[in-house]
Write a structure and sequence with these properties.
5-stranded mixed beta sheet, 18 helices, 13 strands
Length: 473
């Protein structure tokens, strides 16, 4: 065993066993928050005070936010790689690495990542998206060094071996069977995205396909890791009970020597304007009731009608007072559920409505009602009371104690700092986004509805239950 390995392993064991270390006193004062008024709403600015930002020589961008309200620290790394960075015929690589990153590295054995973090009382997880991948650790603040060592070790020396690849390939396949192929409505939802988008970069599912993963070689997998899981393709955010000077020194200690890589430009996510409605029927042997999607191409994050569409999502389907609930479930009673969502990608996104139809109604009748509600939004500005309710719902999502992205949790603040820095190069855009939502007017909502909800731009997918036919046979 090398001296370097002995040193790192000794450090890990020492940190795990230590229960007397306390967080060092703060050496840098965070920016003072001020309260501002936006259209009658009182909000603090900045929403997440940033103590320091810096970039290592290898390109790793780092954001520190000191907060001593609880004795915990959260580390989030956002890698600028997702499904959109994959090549046709080699889909599913980004999601595969969400699993591979926990399979061990030079100084960390298989499955030990979870053991190290959970032994401190902390937690760890990761997720893959169309346009990024994130990894996080939330630990007692006296275990920050352990979290940084673990993250740096797998960035530097992940074990991309044939054995680990095959093991996690089978895990991903089982996940796909469980959560995609054999789950009601999900196969139809995947088909909906494939049909709604015209550009393969946007339309293929994050989990990939069996055929592509089976066709991949260990060389393909290693090259993907080397290319995209590099310091100059990542942002590290550390939030919580930290000494900024000490945290900065630890980042330098563990990440400085990791080499940067040449990062290829991402493929263009550009989508042509849809000029003709699309339709597809998908048989679903796991569904009990018919369902359908009505979907439109929508602007990327922070562009065009972005803020108005975020408000519209709330107006249509958040809570029992929302328009779709009141009309389709409580009023006309044609649906078991009726939802709207806006997926907010950096590239072209989708705004969609998904309805599960009651046995006493039909998809055709339910769709007419959805169209009627959308036409009302086009023709009549919503009331100020309804608009304020939707804005309050957005603020509730941001500031409540529940949820992953809440500002009440250090891991949520770290995630937002890392995402905004990675996506836009500026974490303070979070403040601009909240202001953007709060400045939306009834006229903005009406314009967004007119721009997006067109008959020629819609993609409709029906999920048709086939279980009765299958059982009869």
């Amino acid at each position: 065993m090398s001296n370097r390995k002995r040193t790192l392993l000794t450090l890990a064991v020492t940190l795990l066993l230590s229960n007397t270390t306390t967080s060092a006193p703060a050496t840098t004062v965070s920016p003072v928050q001020t309260t501002i008024s936006v259209n009658g709403f009182e909000i603090k600015k900045p929403l997440i005070p940033v103590t320091e930002r810096f970039t290592l020589a290898n390109g790793l961008r780092v954001v520190l936010s000191e907060d001593h309200s609880a004795p915990v620290a959260s580390c989030v790394i956002v890698y600028d790689v997702g499904a959109r960075n994959e090549k046709k015929g080699r889909s599913g690589f980004a999601h595969l690495f969400e699993h591979m990153m926990f399979e061990g590295s030079e100084n960390v054995g298989k499955a030990e990542y979870f053991k190290y973090i959970e032994s401190t009382g902390g937690n760890v997880n990761a997720s893959t998206h169309p346009d990024f991948t994130n990894y996080f650790e939330k630990v007692p603040s006296n275990q920050l060094e352990l979290a940084l060592w673990l993250e740096s070790d797998r960035m530097r020396s992940l074990k991309v071996t044939p054995e680990n690849f095959e093991n996690q390939l089978q895990t991903v396949k089982e996940e796909k069977r469980l959560n995609y192929d054999n789950k009601p409505y999900v196969p139809a939802e995947v088909k909906m995205e494939e049909l709604a988008f015209d550009n393969w970069t946007n339309q293929h599912p994050v989990i990939g396909s069996f055929e592509d993963l089976d066709a991949a070689s260990i060389s393909d997998i290693r090259q993907f890791f080397k290319t995209f899981y590099a310091p100059n393709n990542a942002v590290l955010a550390i939030v919580g009970d930290i000494d900024p000077t000490q945290a900065k020194a630890l980042v330098h200690k563990y990440f400085d020597s990791i080499p940067s890589q040449k990062i290829p430009a991402p493929p263009s996510p550009a989508e042509p304007v849809q000029t003709k409605a699309k339709y597809l029927k998908v048989d679903d042997q796991h569904a009990e009731m018919p369902a359908f999607w009505m979907t439109w191409k929508a602007p990327p994050r922070r562009e065009g009608d972005y803020y108005a569409l975020g408000i519209l999502e709330k107006v249509l389907s958040t809570g029992t007072s929302s328009r779709l609930y009141q009309r389709m479930i409580k009023g006309d009673q044609v649906a078991l559920s009726a939802n709207a969502s806006y997926d907010e990608r950096r590239g072209p996104a989708l705004f969609e409505s998904m309805v599960i139809v009651k046995p006493t109604s039909t998809p055709e009748k339910a769709r007419e009602i959805v169209w009627d509600e959308l036409e009302k939004l086009k023709k009549e500005p919503i009331s100020q009371a309804e608009l304020d309710k939707a804005k309050n719902q957005i603020l509730r999502d941001m500031f409540s104690s529940a949820g992953y992205y809440t500002l009440q949790r250090s891991v949520g603040r770290a995630e937002l700092l890392a995402e905004y820095t990675s996506f836009f190069g500026n974490s303070t855009f979070l403040d601009k986004d909240i202001e953007g939502y709060l400045k939306v007017t009834p006229a903005d909502i009406q314009k967004a509805a007119q721009d997006i909800f067109t008959k020629d731009g819609v993609t409709v997918v029906d999920a048709v239950p086939t279980h009765a036919t299958t059982q009869a046979q």
